[in-house]
Amino acid sequence: MDLRGARGAPQVTLGLNPGTSCWLDKECLMAVTSKTEERESKLFPWTGRLEQVPWWALIILLLGALIVYFIIISPSYQHAFLFLVAGVKLTIGVSLISFGIALVFGLVLGMGRVSKNVVFYTLSSLYIELVRGIPILVLLIYFAWVVTPLFLQFLNWLGTALANVAVGPLVGLAENMATLGMQDVDMVVRAIAGLAFAYAAFEAEVFRAGIQSIQSGQMEAARSLGMSYFQGMRYIILPQAIRRVLPPLGNDFIGLLKDSSLISVLAVRELTHLGKLNRARTFETFETWNTVAFLYLILTLSLSVFVKFIERRMAYEE
Amino acid sequence: MKNRGVEPLPTDDDIIVIEHLYKSFGRVEAVVDASLRVKMGEVCFIFGPSGGGKSTLLRCINGLEKPDSGTLIVDGIHVTDAKTNIDLVRAEVGMVFQLFNLFPHLSALGNITIAQQKVRKRSKGEAERVALELLERVGMPEKASVYPNELSGGQKQRVAMARALAMNPKIMLFDEPTSALDPEMIKEVLDVMLNLAKEGMTMVVVSHEMGFARAAADRMVFLEEGRIIEEAITEKLFESPKEERTKLFLSHIL
What is the ipTM of this complex? Predict the structure, then answer.
């Protein structure tokens, strides 16, 4: 440090132009500072560049490579991997379908949140506040064991009522509805419903924020051109709002993918559940959960790269 | 100004009839007992100090603000009647905003075609033909495919005017159309407005551009603290304003 200080001092004086008030000048000061930095990095040529390396990414890559290496050389890892891959497919499938439903339902709820229609606004707010306040795990169990039976009872009642008045091909449908039982509704379906309805509340708030971030002049311009409120929403507000909320939507999709591990409590054979089964089958705790974590990370990290890509593209366009 | 006496019945010539209009925001009275008539083809220029209710009065005309009481008839349609479908009025009344309010996700062409297609139900081809014609008229035919963020303020405002004109409105409302512009861009916007006035468009203009008023306005309305203080033919108002406050205001800005 002493050495650098001593060698640095004359250079700093050289950088200042005596006779002017240059040392008060911000640009001049910055020039001096950058010169100092440049000199420092010359003394230790790698310091500057080493700081710029994304170490966290390298460490993750290294850990990933390590797991891949284990999967290749160790039979226990290999078995765990092959056993778990089927779960990855179900995890992806469940996440995609749930998120799709959550987006559509969330958009409707989000529009309710900004609506001047009291009924629409109240219903949306009620749903969002209720669902957001309940842990997703509880919601999933609730949907699987409380909402589904209630819904089935309703369908049975409707089927019975319909059977009395139905004619032609409708008779069959009514009879089917009247005799639907719990065993007819797959756990995967209940899990998807639970995840979708839980996440719809979050997406609703994302959409609301997006809609409210568009300045009121946009709707005024649309209305002053004779568009209805819904035309203004559809053609002017939403195209802008949705673009703005793509990054948070992407984040929520990653969140949902991770939360899909909770449906293992419903014995849906997704990744986490298969992890439990594999551990119970083989007693290889380390191998199993290392592989499960590895597979989740592959999914979530590639998604977050995708989200970053979208963000960058949007920044360019705006 | 209660001393105006009995007001004449509206004639067929009056395309905008405003009678005893009130509008307040909370405790702030934005428009107080405003009565005004605008004839077909007339250019009506509203001026006065900031916060005097000019914009509010203008925004009432196409229903962007809902008056508290009073009567407002635009092109024979009772705007103040709760049963009126306000969209019908708005399609006939074009509006130009201080901050342009162009749609940033659409190109200049898209800005001008969208309402034609969705409200006037014109085909894409016809809407584009109209849009290109209008872009030519506002002097920027080469900018059709350009997005608003790449346009200058003056260009934005000209596209905004083309967007409103594409609906073939019977009335054009201007809400301080040059207030957000750099001085060198004001002329290009005023030129378009002058041409429009010459072509016989009915215009209600809220602005501080007294030069434009002198050149194009038929009638001038001075608004202060929500009240119409004075209303007169342009030359009369410039040469011999009746009210002290009008004189004072004119002496400050001329």
Answer: 0.90
